[in-house]
Amino acid sequence: MQPDEPVGDVIRIYGTGHYQETVPVLDDKGHMVSTEVERDMEVDIAMKWGNGFETTQRSFVNIIATPKGGTHVLGFERALVKVVNEALRSTKTLSNKEVDVIKDDVMEGLTAVVTVRMSEPQFEGQTKAKLGSVEARGAVEAVFGDAFATFLEENPDDAKQIINKVI
Questions:
Q1: pTM higher than 0.85, yes or no?
Q2: Are 109 and 165 in contact (CB under 8 A)?
Q3: For the chain, what is the HEC assignment?
Q4: For residue range 125-157, what is the model confidence (pLDDT) as tens digits?
Q5: Quick count: other Cβ atoms within 10 Å of Cβ 69?
Q6: How far apart are CA 41 and CA 130, in angstroms?
Q7: Cβ atoms of 73 and 136 closer than 8 Å
Q8: Cα separations in angstroms, 131 against 67, 75, 111, 127, 142
Q9: pLDDT band at 5, cuts 50/70/90?
Q10: Mean pLDDT throughout 84-92?
Q11: How many CB atoms lie within 10 A of CB 134?
């Protein structure tokens, strides 16, 4: 199979997100007490569109592969679709009367690697194939969404290539 012709360069988004998590902690008397803990999460995403139609996505949590994705991937996908739709509207490529493009349109031809580093991740099942930590979705969505929107603003040529690919 021939590899896709690239559409633009590799886009690398890196940042740190903050979230609160409720965790059980032993108190002075040996009782488990629910405690709010502030946590940081590193978000590291590399992506590139090709002119083909196949989507290739890999995801990792603390270097552990998560082949079934999880909440970190959901946060990435939601932010990606939202930012692309905002770019389509701001460039008048989509009018306000037209419906948003959907995830499948945005992801077409995309190769992406979504990596997060976080304390005490919660996985679904024993195989660690899918991240279940609900806080990861919001943290990834915020970090990636803001950084990707800024990238598109600061790189109008790349933004135009991505918009043309999606359309």
A1: yes
A2: yes
A3: CCCCCEEEEEEEEEEEEEEEEEEEEECCCCCEEEEEEEEEEEEEEEEEEECCCCCEEEEEECCEECCCCEHHHHHHHHHHHHHHHHHHHHCCCCCCCCCCCCHHHHHCCEEEEEEEEECCCCECCCCCCCECCHHHHHHHHHHHHHHHHHHHHHCHHHHHHHHHHHC
A4: 888 999 999 999 999 999 999 999 999 999 999
A5: 17
A6: 17
A7: no
A8: 10, 12, 20, 10, 18
A9: confident
A10: 94
A11: 12
Radius of gyration of the chain (CA): 18
How far apart are the C-alpha atoms of 19 and 90, rounded to whole Å?
A: 30
Q: Which two tokens stand for residue 8?
A: 């633009």
Give the HSE-up count for residue 102: Cα atoms under 13 Å, Cβ half-sphere: 1
Token couple for 63? 């270097």
Phi–psi pair at 70, nearest 5 degrees: 135, -165
